[in-house]
Specification:
Shape: globular
Helix content: over 70%
Radius of gyration: 18 Å
Number of strands: 0
Distance between the termini: 38 Å
Order of helices and strands: HHHHHHHHHHH
Number of domains: 1
Number of helices: 11
Largest sheet: none
Amino acid sequence: MDCNIFFNLMDLIINLDEHLIYLINSYGLFVYAIIFLIIFCETGLVVTPFLPGDSLIFVLGALGASGQINLLLICLIIMVAAILGNMLNYQIGNFIGPKIFERDSGRFFKKEYLIRTHDFFEKHGGKTIVIARFLPIIRTFAPFVAGIGKMKYSRFTFFNLIGCVSWVLVFLAGGYLFGNVPGVRDNFTFVILAIISVSLIPAIVLSLRQKKTSATNSHK
């Protein structure tokens, strides 16, 4: 990824509240379409797992609490975007099939992310679709792997609905309840960084466990 793109992305993520307020004031209802597109792509395209998800929804909850955005409308938009994104991702995985595992990592595609998600999926089964909603990167690849593995579509849809609705409600409620607390509002950049860091912990722990297991097996 180009350095300028990386730094611009980090600025967008860290200063989400400022950027969103600016967009709302400048473009009004058009912002809802932008938010839909971000969540849809973060969820539905395996090449965009770096887009903001948890932090974006938390900020939207805070803006909804302060009346700067229609909370009910944004809740519905995010849920629909997440659900449809997962459905698209499943269909892409189903269409491409196992051949994707033979492809080398590229600029935007990281094979190790796919393998990591596949291992997680093998361990936890269908509930991975729900658990993965709360794990950055893994949530982008989980429906893709479900499609590759030919998971029954009705079963996938069931877990998809539960996972997406739960994910949106948890982070939206968190932003609504705590986003405008003085200590949180005055240190919003640190709060966003904390959300990102905490949400990455499970994925990091999983990665370390896999490395430990691989190292153990290699010495046998």
